[in-house]
Amino acid sequence: xxxxxxxxxxxxxxxxxxxxxxxxxxxxxxxxxxxxxxxxxxxxxxxxxxxxxxxxxxxxxxxxxxxxxxxxxxxxxxxxxxxxxxxxxxxxxxxxxxxxxxxxxxxxxxxxxxxxxxxxxxxxxxxxxxxxxxxxxxxxxxxxxxxxxxxxxxxxxxxxxxxxxxxxxxxxxxxxxxxxxxxxxxxxxxxxxxxxxxxxxxxxxxxxxxxxxxxxxxxxxxxxxxxxxxxxxxxxxxxxxxxxxxxxxxxxxxxxxxxxxxxxxxxxxxxxxxxxxxxxxxxxxxxxxxxxxxxxxxxxxxxxxxxxxxxxxxxxxxxxxxxxxxxxxxxxxxxxxxxxxxxxxxxxxxxxxxxxxxxxxxxxxxxxxxxxxxxxxxxxxxxxxxxxxxxxxxxxxxxxxxxxxxxxxxxxxxxxxxxxxxxxxxxxxxxxxxxxxxxxxxxxxxxxxxxxxxxxxxxxxxxxxxxx
Length: 468
Ligand SMILES: [Ca+2]
Ligand SMILES: [Ca+2]
Ligand SMILES: [Ca+2]
Hints:
Blueprint: H1 2-13, E1 21-28, H2 30-41, E2 49-52, E3 58-64, H3 68-76, E4 81-86, E5 89-92, H4 108-111, H5 140-144, H6 147-151, E6 161-166, E7 205-207, H7 230-239, E8 256-261, E9 268-270, H8 271-283, E10 288-291, E11 293-294, H9 307-318, E12 322-326, E13 355-361, E14 380-383, E15 390-391, E16 395-396, H10 397-400, H11 410-427, H12 433-442, E17 445-446, E18 458-459, H13 462-467
Parallel strand pairs: 6-8, 6-10, 7-8, 10-12, 12-13, 13-14
Antiparallel strand pairs: 1-3, 1-4, 2-3, 5-9, 5-11, 15-16, 17-18
Bound molecules: calcium ion (3 copies).
């Protein structure tokens, strides 16, 4: 303990205050935690910070950028430090279709939906209407995976919660608002953390970017890697309300969506915020998380890799949850083999059994040209080329980005599998995550185009899944 104190004191006295900062994650032994936190807090200067992530003794430490490497090397010498790593940036997977569009011909107004600020959260879920969903016919993927046959058996149980961990969701959307998860133990807008879960007035989820209770899907400039309304698009294919006379339908039209935002309007998030979002999902009852994001930024020479992200997925697995993850979109418009490529997408390629990694196929059962695949590392394919859905501003995907009505990406495929898992778990509430995963993979429709490319060798088949 004494050595730690001295080393920290020497180093911290040397810190000079710059305008930019570097963040890193440190895992400490419990007995050293308080000491390290106190050391950092006791500095003169308000910009340096340390935050306990509340998970496995991981700390988020922020220091001036010009001191970061020095600080990290000092920390590595301390016996109380078990792991140290950058707070890796995590990105939205881009929409591959954007590459084919000449942005100079598109007006600025079209590339960024106008949303002034976070709207208020509806006080309660709107009563659902009735009637067919007029835009359902645009969702080719729903027919392809046989949802209507499955719905004869179950449309999902509202006790099943899917966390959409993404850019947020338009929680005012007519086709999403009826299916929002509600934290029934939390009284809205009283400024009190009624359920004592660490979050004040968290009634539908949380925004880990802005650290508030309004996880709205704020859009950014899509030609600069910004958010096009990604989370709302994903949420729609999980669980847009069905047969309400409006819009579309998700795969599981009666389950609930927990809204967790950790990717900003700029299309970027951090490992620390991903950890917080996944932890929230697990601790607040989401059996399934839908994760259409990832990073190819893990430095292969960094042997530790993103241990913090691995740790939180281990926690999710130990708590019996399924983690559905996009396999990722290849850099050059051509998907690569995750088995061999030195630069796979994470977290999809982690070894955790509770991850279902999802590739994207088109209406002709061919992998999207952009879609990653891997014979041992990518599990199943689902509709992910020209996918129609809800999106931000109360709209549908043909309205918000008029030149790109149907979106491409493993991001779009992933929510179909998350919805399928929700349907299966609705029908078999006592199933383990292993049983749900096994049922999804074993019922996949085998395809020659996928036989040597995916673990299951096939595409999602919800009809077979529910009827088996
Ligand atoms: Ca709370
Ligand atoms: Ca409250
Ligand atoms: Ca609908």
